[in-house]
C-alpha cells in the first residue's frame, strides 16, 4: 500500500523516541512525590527498630540519619502496613515521639520536643477507601486556628495549651459527613471521613406516604386514622377490596394481615402472608410473602419474600428475598437476595446477592452476583457486571495512552473490575490538520494477575477508522493478548500483539490509508462483490502506559 508522503509519520524511530520521552517525563514526575508520601507495603514481626529502619530503607530507597544515643532503636516492633505512606509508618513505629525532616534522599530523625506549651497535631484525612482527601479543613473551635490538607490528605496544626479534658478538633469537607470531633490528644491522627449519601430509605418512605394519600377522600378519613392508631396485630384469611378502606376489612384494613388479598382497583392492608392480587395497585404496611401481583404498582413497607410483579413499579422499604419483576422500576431500600428484572432501573440501596437485569441502569452497593444492563453501578463487586458502562467505585479504572501499527496516538478509559471491564477508546494520526485519520471504538476485557506486579490482558474491541467525516463502513476489530507491568501504584506499562480483522465498504474510495509509519503483513484479503464488502487480516501490536 502507498504510504503518505509525510516525513513525520514515515519514521517510526521518532514515534518510539516520542513515546519513550513521555514515559521518561512521567517517571520523573512520579519521582517528585515527596519522600515521606511514598507508599509502602511492608510487615515486621518482633524486629528491633534498627532492623525496621534498614528494611524500610531498602523498600523506600532512602537513608535514615539519627543518633542511637538519643533514639531507642533496640526496642522491638511488630506491625503490617499495606500501601501506607512512609510518614504514617514512621509515626506508628515511633509512637509519635519522633519528628522527621527530609534532605535529598535522607530522612533525619530527632526526638519530638517535650517541654513546650503547644503541640503539633499532624496526620491524614482519608475517605472510606483510605485515599487522602485534599483541601479538607481542620480547626480548633476554641482558638479558631486552622489547617488545610495537601494533595495527599496530610495536615499539621499547632495547638497551644491543649486542655486534656476539653481538647477538640473539627474536620470539615464538602460532600463528606458534616463534622468529625477528635477528643484524643495524640500527636498523629488518621481521620476517616464518610461521604454524604442520600437517605433513600427516608425518601422511599416519604414517597410511600404520599402514595397512600393519593385518594383525597381518604386523606383525613377514619380509615387513615385507624391505621395510624392500630398495630398490625389483626388477622384474616381473605380480603376483598374495591379501593382502600372500601372492602371486607372496612375502615381498619390497614391494621389487618391477610392470608389472601384481592383488590379490584387497589388495596391497603397491614401485610400479606400467601398471595395478593391488585387490578392497579397493592399497598402493604408490613411484610408480604410468596406472591404479590399488580397491574401498575406494588408497595411493601416491610420485607418481601417470594414473587413480586408489577406493570410499572415495585417498591420495598425493607429487604427483598424474591424475584422482582417490573415494567419500569424495582426499588429496594435495604438488601436484595434474589433477582431484579426491570425495563428501566433496578435500585438496591444496600447489598445485592443475586442478579440484576435492566435495559438501562442497575445499582447496588456491594454486589455478589451478576449485573446486566446498559449502565451498571456498584461500590464493590464480587461477580460480573456486563453492560456498555460498568463503574465500580472500589474497582478497576485506568486511563491509557498508547500506540498501535495504525495510529501513533491512542487514548482509552477502562472501568469495571479486573475480572471483567469495558473501555472506550479513540485514536489519532496527524497526517494533516485538515483531514487527520482518527478512530473511535469500544471493547471488553479481563486482566488476571500473573505475579506481584504483572498482569495478563485479554481484550476484544472494534474501532471505526475514518478520514474526516464518517461516510462508510471501515471497522477494525482487534483481539489483544498483552502484558502489563505495574511500575508504581498508579502507573503501569503494557505491550502485546493484536490480531486485526478489517471489514470495509469497497464501493467507497475515501478510506484513509491504514499504515503510514508501519508495514504489517496482510496475510488474508478477500472481497464480496455482491455485498460490496472487503476483509483483511493482519498481525499488529499495542504498547503504552496506564494511570490508575
From TrEMBL:
Name of this protein: Secretin/TonB short N-terminal domain-containing protein
The organism of origin for this protein: Algoriphagus taiwanensis
Highest taxon in the source lineage: Bacteria
Amino acid at each position: 500500500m502507498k504510504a503518505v508522503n509525510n516525513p513525520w509519520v514515515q519514521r517510526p524511530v521518532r514515534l518510539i523516541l516520542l513515546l519513550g520521552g513521555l514515559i521518561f517525563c512521567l517517571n520523573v514526575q512520579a519521582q517528585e512525590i515527596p519522600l515521606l508520601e511514598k507508599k509502602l507495603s511492608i510487615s515486621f514481626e518482633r524486629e528491633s527498630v534498627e532492623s525496621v529502619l534498614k528494611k524500610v530503607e531498602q523498600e523506600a530507597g532512602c537513608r535514615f540519619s539519627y543518633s542511637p544515643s538519643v533514639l531507642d532503636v533496640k526496642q522491638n516492633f511488630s506491625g503490617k502496613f499495606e500501601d501506607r505512606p512512609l510518614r504514617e509508618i514512621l509515626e506508628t513505629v515511633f509512637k509519635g515521639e519522633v519528628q522527621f525532616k527530609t534532605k535529598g534522599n535522607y530522612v533525619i530523625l530527632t526526638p519530638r520536643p517535650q517541654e513546650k506549651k503547644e503541640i503539633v497535631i499532624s496526620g491524614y484525612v482519608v475517605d472510606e477507601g483510605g485515599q487522602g482527601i485534599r483541601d479538607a479543613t481542620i480547626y480548633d473551635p476554641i482558638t479558631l486556628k486552622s489547617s488545610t490538607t495537601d494533595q495527599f490528605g496530610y495536615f499539621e496544626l499547632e495547638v497551644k495549651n491543649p486542655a486534656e479534658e476539653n481538647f477538640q478538633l473539627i474536620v470539615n469537607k464538602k460532600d463528606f459527613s458534616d463534622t468529625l470531633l477528635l477528643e484524643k490528644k495524640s500527636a498523629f491522627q488518621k481521620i476517616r471521613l464518610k461521604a454524604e449519601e442520600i437517605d433513600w430509605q427516608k425518601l422511599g418512605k416519604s414517597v410511600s406516604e404520599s402514595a397512600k394519600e393519593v385518594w383525597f377522600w381518604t386523606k383525613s378519613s377514619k380509615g387513615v386514622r385507624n391505621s395510624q392508631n392500630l398495630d398490625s396485630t389483626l388477622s384474616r384469611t381473605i380480603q376483598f377490596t374495591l379501593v382502600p378502606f372500601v372492602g371486607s376489612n372496612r375502615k381498619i384494613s390497614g391494621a389487618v394481615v391477610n392470608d389472601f388479598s384481592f383488590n379490584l382497583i387497589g388495596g391497603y392492608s397491614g401485610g400479606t402472608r400467601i398471595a395478593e392480587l391488585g387490578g392497579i395497585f397493592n399497598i402493604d404496611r408490613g411484610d408480604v410473602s410468596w406472591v404479590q401481583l399488580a397491574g401498575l404498582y406494588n408497595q411493601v413497607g416491610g420485607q418481601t419474600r417470594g414473587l413480586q410483579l408489577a406493570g410499572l413499579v415495585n417498591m420495598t422499604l425493607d429487604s427483598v428475598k424474591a424475584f422482582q419483576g417490573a415494567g419500569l422500576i424495582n426499588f429496594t431500600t435495604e438488601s436484595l437476595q434474589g433477582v431484579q428484572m426491570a425495563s428501566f432501573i433496578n435500585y438496591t440501596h444496600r447489598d445485592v446477592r443475586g442478579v440484576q437485569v435492566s435495559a438501562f441502569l442497575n445499582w447496588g452497593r456491594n454486589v455478589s452476583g451478576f449485573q446486566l444492563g446498559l449502565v451498571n453501578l456498584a461500590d464493590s463487586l464480587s461477580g460480573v457486571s456486563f453492560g456498555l458502562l460498568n463503574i465500580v467505585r472500589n474497582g478497576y479504572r485506568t486511563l491509557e495512552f498508547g500506540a498501535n501499527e495504525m495510529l501513533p496516538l491512542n487514548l482509552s478509559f477502562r472501568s469495571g473490575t479486573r475480572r471483567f471491564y469495558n473501555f472506550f477508546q479513540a485514536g489519532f494520526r496527524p497526517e494533516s490538520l485538515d483531514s487527520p485519520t482518527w478512530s473511535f471504538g469500544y471493547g471488553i476485557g479481563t486482566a488476571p494477575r500473573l505475579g506481584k506486579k504483572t498482569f495478563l490482558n485479554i481484550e476484544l474491541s472494534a474501532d471505526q477508522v475514518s478520514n474526516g467525516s464518517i461516510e462508510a463502513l471501515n471497522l477494525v476489530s482487534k483481539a489483544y493478548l498483552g502484558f502489563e507491568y505495574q511500575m508504581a501504584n498508579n502507573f503501569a506499562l503494557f505491550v502485546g500483539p493484536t490480531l486485526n480483522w478489517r471489514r470495509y465498504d469497497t464501493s467507497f474510495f475515501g478510506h484513509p490509508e491504514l499504515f503510514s509509519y508501519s508495514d504489517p503483513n496482510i496475510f488474508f484479503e478477500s472481497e464480496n462483490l455482491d455485498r460490496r464488502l472487503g476483509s483483511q487480516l493482519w498481525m499488529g501490536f499495542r504498547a503504552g502506559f496506564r494511570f490508575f
